[in-house]
Specification:
By secondary structure, this protein is an alpha/beta fold. The chain is globular and about 35 Å long. It has helices at residues 18-33, 58-65, 74-79, 96-104, and strands spanning 5-11, 38-42, 69-73, 91-94, 106-112. It has a single domain (5-112), classed as 3-Layer(aba) Sandwich (Hypothetical Protein Ychn, Chain: A), CATH 3.40.1260. A 5-stranded parallel β-sheet has the order 4-3-2-1-5. The protein has 4 helices and 5 strands, in the order βαβαβαβαβ. α1 runs parallel beside α2 (58-65).
């Protein structure tokens, strides 16, 4: 069972679109400051952000420093050759059936793709 999340972001941009993270991180910080529990599902190209063996720049480090529940879509990880064993500690790999549970337990869903 997935815990209740106030806002779940479906994030689909890869590491080549860091300007999107520069926009979303302050929004998430504001929502956290107002007491919201935030989840982020890394989907499509954004799953490359969860690869623990990559070199993190400050923007990606700031993202994973947030008190957010992170998920990465397993089919997208597999398509990009990323093993679940090589994910950043805060990232939970999920299947599409798990995604349904995450979204069902979220009050709001924001698509950022």
């Amino acid at each position: 069972m997935v815990e209740k999340i106030n806002i779940t972001y479906l994030y689909g941009y890869g590491s080549d679109a860091l300007n999107h993270l520069n926009t979303i991180i302050p929004l998430i910080n504001e929502q956290i400051a107002s007491g919201s529990k935030i989840g982020m599902v890394l989907i499509h190209d954004s799953v490359v952000l969860s690869f623990s063996k990559r070199k993190f720049n400050d923007i990606i480090k700031n993202l994973f420093d947030l008190p957010v529940k992170f998920f990465a879509m397993s089919p997208d990880l597999k398509a990009r050759g990323i093993s679940a064993d090589n994910l950043f500690d805060k990232v939970e790999p999920i299947e599409y059936t798990d995604l349904v549970d995450v979204l069902e337990n979220s009050e709001k869903i924001v698509s950022w793709m």
